[in-house]
Amino acid sequence: MARYDVAIIGAGIVGLASARELLRRRPGLRVAVLDKESGIAQHQSGHNSGVIHSGIYYTPGSLKAQLCVAGMREMYAYCEAKGIPTDRCGKVIVATEPAELGRLDDLHARGRANGVAGLELIGPERLRELEPHCAGIRALWSPETGIVDYSQVARGYAEDIRAAGADILTNHPLLGVRKLAGGLLLETPGDEIEARRMIACAGVYADRLARLTRGAREPRVVPFRGDYWQLRPESRHLARNLIYPVPEPDFPFLGVHATRRLGSGEVWLGPNAVLAFSREGYGRLDTRPRDLLAALANRGFQRMAARYWRMGAVEMWRDFSKRAFLRSVQRYLPEVTLADLVPGQSGVRAQAISPEGALVDDFVVDVQGERVLHVRNAPSPAATSSLAIGRLVADAAQKAFGE
Question: Is beta strand 274-275 parallel, antiparallel or unpaired with respect to 183-187?
């Protein structure tokens, strides 16, 4: 039987960053990272738009605001040291009608309060210089926003972990956890693993891992799928870098935006945000009854759906209607036509929802007793913030578990 000081469940970017930070602080610590998949970063960490966020959107003083701003700087520095390509290309958040100007001003103030460098409110002429095909009456320019391949970043973290002597155990789904006198017994299909402490970074399965260890019932996770279209190669010139709309005040997502992909030059348009019928449902019709029933029976989700049903209906229609999706894009890229859109990727966002029906708006780390710690909510900008989240997890573990 393998024995470790700490077992981390989940080889996504947050789990890997947490393992890396623990090993940095405590060289020689016996650490194992377990994942049910055959490789690392197979879900949220490998199904995202690759944006290095600057920290504009988040409530000042929140963990998201603090860790995103710090994590962005660390991400650029880490990638430079590891030879991982990045592009600090900048992004514009575009107001297309007068009703959005107040919200754009609020974003500018929020970003400045969070310490985001270089933010600038710009007019149509400057916007056209940055994005010649973009239509808008005003925009917020964020020069520090960039792009990276987060799968490559995750591989860098994994290299660091292995170099420090830790194990990454793929094909190891966690089936059960039993308490021992000096730790925990982790049951997997192949073997049993003994660990003194456990840290769960399970993303979309965060609430189920908490239930497996008899942890807190709330918050529970509801999976939201986001689908992308792409611009065909001949039309990629229509978006140079990153173009975002002003977020809808009555809907807790960022809206359909344009994102250039590093390396390939692809331009992704999206995502929308609809209920995923499976926690790993990347196709529109992918359904796992257990996952769907759990979401529909969740009182928090029911309350949220009642509050946002109009926007939810629009998102669902836009998910199945290419023309409806196109109209969202044409608000700020009016030259895009139906023929310019080709099918793209999809991702599933693990979003915790409170019993009152609100999306949990911050990162949540939950300590359970003296042996278990759960990362309960870590959606975007978790990839950008991953090194800083690793410190948050390590700090919480040290405080809860001691030496």
Answer: unpaired
